[in-house]
Amino acid sequence: MVRKVLTGLGIGAALLASVGTASAAKSLTIGTAAAPESVWGTAFNEWKKNVEKDGKGAVTLDIKFGSTQGTEATMVDKMKAGQLAGAAVTSSGLSKINKGLLAMQVPGVMTDWSKVDKVRAAMGSEFEKMLSDNGITLVTWGDVGYAHFLSKGFAVHTPDDLKGKNPWIYGDDPVLKSVYSAIGGVNPFSSELMAVGSNIDNGKINCMSISALAAEMLQWNSKYDNGVDAVNGIVVGAVVMSSDALNGLPADVKKVVTDYGKTLSYKGSSLSARIRAEDAAAWGRFKGRSGVKMYTPTDDDKGKWATVFKSSRDALKAGTFNASLVGRIESNAK
Fold first, then answer.
1. 0.70 cut: is pTM over it?
2. In the predicted model, is pLDDT for residue 22 greater than 70?
């Protein structure tokens, strides 16, 4: 009789444990360099709230801000290893999934948002396949902003003004490397995000090509006193997730995660539209700051930059990227 009671209790405990495990919410960790109070941070927290509300307790999003999950390359490696469910990355991080995804950053092609939209509309499915073939699912494309040259203690009018200078390169970014190689005599300084600020302060980095919003968010904008009022490129990115992590969810829960992710919003407007507006406002604040010297390139200056950018693209087509891919990006951006 005692044995039967104990056996019954054991079975009951096992059933209760099974029910508890099945009903526990699955936590998906998402990494980002963004600060929680930034435009991106606000949108990610809105995504979390909506997913957890409509997911009916089946899933939670654990958003890790401020690069606490490591560099973009590290976050991509963690996704592939199953240690991270997703991440918000720039094209630099996307290139760690498939190098071709960095091709949208080739210099002198993307000079306004309409061109970015045209290329994504024409080639979005091709880019998504580059991700899915590597076990990664696109949640939504993201924007960072117009890239401008910022410098400290000197002005940048033409490419030759960068000779002997030390511009920052994010990690091993081959695009900017090719630009500086095409100019010649430039000494680029490569580092990850968290090491940039101190290296601006100690003089190892004295200029960079960056979006105004990113520079402001990372608190680098105040370290520069010169700017070029021209767009030399557009920094883009995406929110991506491990396909395995998504496919491990029930179909209806997966749909909640991806549907809200696709429509990431901030105060009623799309995240993309908000970021574009915020980036323009950040550039206005930089230009209006006391002590900042702005330069608008002449037609002759623009011609010199165009020559350098074309030389850089030709070099990238010859080795780094598939020439046909870059050609299609150029054609669709026209």
1. yes
2. no
